[in-house]
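for the recovery benchmark. tokens below, seq after
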């Protein structure tokens, strides 16, 4: 075995031959002439492996291609197969799945000619993994099982563990997360016993992913942190990227959006650096999901479009299905029902093609939601029941089950079946609380508050409304992106308005006033409008006054944004000092106009002009 090149020599070659395949090959040929005790083909294989370890997959691909040519000229079929294996792996890491499958298939024929069963099994497992990445999961299962049978028969325990780990990935894509978890745990036990760190890191990562799919986000993050520590120790850029990407998903589900965006950015940079197109596509998909939850469908749609474009480039059917589903969500949010239905149905078609019951279930859930919003309750229930059947069968995803119950509750409420709706919402809330999914927990608390209001149970409605505010505020503290803070804050204002009115109706003026103080702006405006609907109530608020309150609300939200940033990163306080001064100046200007407009700080309620403190007494 030749000695490793020093890092500075490899880095110099990377800079010099970044886009020059011919120059790189010629340079390595020149280096091989001076090497003793190693033939040129193997020299190329070894240098290619050095670049693979550094995640420079284009360099590894070019050098493995030349190694194959040299072995082909020499007629060395065993080394031809070996170089094809390495070449296929480089293609796979670059998301060139069809090329990877072509190389592995060619290597398999050479392995069979040589009669080496261990090599045949290794190629089967590699082929399976590539088919799985491409989304051809059923074909992947066939190859994994062929590989596993040979490895078990020959007692090759390390390979048995690795194949079980890979088989678990395929099972997860089919929605069989519990079975996948068993295989990953078996693999982890062996890798830990043998202190094989790369295998342990991979198994830990896959176990974390399974827990995410099963709805346990906190446990998912525990396993991913352990995996990430090993990947960092091994300097495995691909492993680091994949871990960060999965951490992003779990953090997003927990409502920790700012942390999720940070992890996704780290993953995106790593995938871009190593040239992994599928990884870059996945990072765009993750960003889209975060922006969608933050109420920015425009950014979400643009990221999903990029995700779809990249997956179409690599031929990854599984990824295309996910992107179509995300695009449909965005169109539905914009009210473009026809485009949303088109993308959902395309997602169903692709998911059936790859055998992904989990994503097929997700598409049915979204179709059910789509028809619910169009008040086509029969169609909505039909798709939701299909999703629930799949979820109770093969999928076993608590996150999906929770959302089905929420949407079925909405459908039942739309049909006036309140007791049925209550049952659905409570089932969904129980799952969301247990899984720690704050965003969905907030939504379900709000749904129950609104349901009890419609049922005439105002005290219960008020109780759940207060819980909704508490959960909303805890989520709001995680959002530090200005435009999204304002969007989410505006939504929170609506919750405040509703709860303030409920406090009044339930005879709890002190609590109502406390929420009034929190909400500021529009909540006060709407409270004044409420008095206007009573005998002897207030005059109708004119548009100019409403606009002033709206401006006040936006300024308050921006100030909250800056103060939150200072709490998280105290060192940037000076950077924002001027902006905060300007915002406070603008806010004071708005309040001066409000004072004039409302009789020098008095609010026009009926015939008398009441002070702000007297509003409290009115409550």
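predicted aa per position
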């Amino acid at each position: 075995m030749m000695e490793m090149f020093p890092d500075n020599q490899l880095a110099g070659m990377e800079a010099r031959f970044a886009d020059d395949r011919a120059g790189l090959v010629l340079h390595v040929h020149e280096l091989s002439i001076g090497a003793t005790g190693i033939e040129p083909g193997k020299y190329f294989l070894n240098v290619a492996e050095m670049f693979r370890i550094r995640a420079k997959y284009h360099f590894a691909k070019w050098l493995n291609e030349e190694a194959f040519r040299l072995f082909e000229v020499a007629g060395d079929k065993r080394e031809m197969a070996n170089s094809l294996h390495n070449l296929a792996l480089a293609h796979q890491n670059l998301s060139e799945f069809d090329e990877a499958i072509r190389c592995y298939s060619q290597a398999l024929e050479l392995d069979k000619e040589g009669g080496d069963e261990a090599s045949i099994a290794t190629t089967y497992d590699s082929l399976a993994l590539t088919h799985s990445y491409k989304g051809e999961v059923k074909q992947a299962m066939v190859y994994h099982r062929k590989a596993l049978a040979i490895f078990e028969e020959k007692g090759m325990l390390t390979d048995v563990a690795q194949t079980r780990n890979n088989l678990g990935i395929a099972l997860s894509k089919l929605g069989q997360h519990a079975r996948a978890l068993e295989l990953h745990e078996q693999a982890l036990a062996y890798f830990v016993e043998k202190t094989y760190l790369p295998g342990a890191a991979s198994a830990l990562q896959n176990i974390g992913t399974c827990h995410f799919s099963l709805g346990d986000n906190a446990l998912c993050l525990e396993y991913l942190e352990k995996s990430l520590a090993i990947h960092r120790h091994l300097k495995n850029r691909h492993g680091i990227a994949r871990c960060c990407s999965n951490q992003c998903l779990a953090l997003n589900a927990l409502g920790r959006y700012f942390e999720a965006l940070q992890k996704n950015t780290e993953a995106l940079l790593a995938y871009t650096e190593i040239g992994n197109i599928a990884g870059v596509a996945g990072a765009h998909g993750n960003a889209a999901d975060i922006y969608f939850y933050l109420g920015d469908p425009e950014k979400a749609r643009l990221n999903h479009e990029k995700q779809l474009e990249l997956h179409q480039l690599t031929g990854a059917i599984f990824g295309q299905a996910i992107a179509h589903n995300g695009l449909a969500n965005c169109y539905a949010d914009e009210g473009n029902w026809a485009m949303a239905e088109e993308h959902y149905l395309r997602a169903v078609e692709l998911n059936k093609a790859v055998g992904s019951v989990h994503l097929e279930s997700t598409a049915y859930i979204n179709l059910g939601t789509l028809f619910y919003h169009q008040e086509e309750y029969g169609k909505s229930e039909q798709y939701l029941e299909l999703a629930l059947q799949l979820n109770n069968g093969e999928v076993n995803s608590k996150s999906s089950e929770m959302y089905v119950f929420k949407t079925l509750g909405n459908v039942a409420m739309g049909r006036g079946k309140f007791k049925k709706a209550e049952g659905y919402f409570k089932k969904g809330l129980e799952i969301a609380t247990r899984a720690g999914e704050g965003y969905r927990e907030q939504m379900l608390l709000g749904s129950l508050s609104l349901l009890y209001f419609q049922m005439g149970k105002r005290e219960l409605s008020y109780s759940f409304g207060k819980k909704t505010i508490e959960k909303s505020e805890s989520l709001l503290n995680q959002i530090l992106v200005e435009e999204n803070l304002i969007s989410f804050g505006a939504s929170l204002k609506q919750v405040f308005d509703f709860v303030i009115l409920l406090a009044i109706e339930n005879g709890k003026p002190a609590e109502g006033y406390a929420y009034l103080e929190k909400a500021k702006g529009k909540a006060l405006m709407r409270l004044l409008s409420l008095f206007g609907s009573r005998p002897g109530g207030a005059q109708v608020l004119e548009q100019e006054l409403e606009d002033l309150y709206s401006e006040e609300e936006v300024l308050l939200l921006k100030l909250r944004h800056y103060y939150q940033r200072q709490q998280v990163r105290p060192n940037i306080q000076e950077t924002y000092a001027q902006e905060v001064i300007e915002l406070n100046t603008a806010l004071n200007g708005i309040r001066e106009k409000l004072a004039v407009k409302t009789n020098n700080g008095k609010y026009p309620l009926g015939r008398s002009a009441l002070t702000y403190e007297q509003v409290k007494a009115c409550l």
